[in-house]
Design goal:
mainly beta, 7-stranded mixed sheet, 11 strands
């Protein structure tokens, strides 16, 4: 079992920045590739970013590429998402997820563990 807890969400003006964190406990953090997803009411949960077990490679959704940066610190069992140049359409609950597969996955159904989410609200 892996427990994931997100933090760092909040209210920010358009153009601002936030840094989300995902703290993991349980099985070895470095055994999992890690993902960020987001969801708004009435919409499906969507892929945002993913990072490999070692942190050497990352993948981003087109909508956030160039604005968001995913990273991890395996020594601290923590993953991060730096959100820059935020837009109102980035408003969502952001979830971290762990995937035990050997390669990066982007589908919701491929994730093994989920956090409960942290709300990001971007005002105009």
């Amino acid at each position: 079992q892996v427990q994931l807890v997100e933090s760092g969400g909040g209210l920010v003006q358009a153009g601002g920045s936030l840094r989300l964190s995902c703290a993991a406990s349980g099985r070895p953090f470095s055994s999992y590739s890690m993902n960020w997803f987001r969801q708004t009411p009435g919409k499906e949960r969507e892929f945002v970013a993913a990072i490999t077990r070692s942190g050497s490679d990352a993948l981003y959704a087109d909508s956030v590429k160039g604005r968001f940066t995913i990273s991890r610190d395996n020594a601290k069992n923590t993953m991060y998402l730096q959100l820059n140049s935020l837009k109102p359409e980035d408003t969502a609950v952001y979830y971290c997820a762990a995937n035990s597969g050997s390669v990066i996955a982007t589908r919701v159904g491929s994730m093994d563990y989920w956090g409960k989410g942290t709300l990001v609200t971007v005002s105009t």
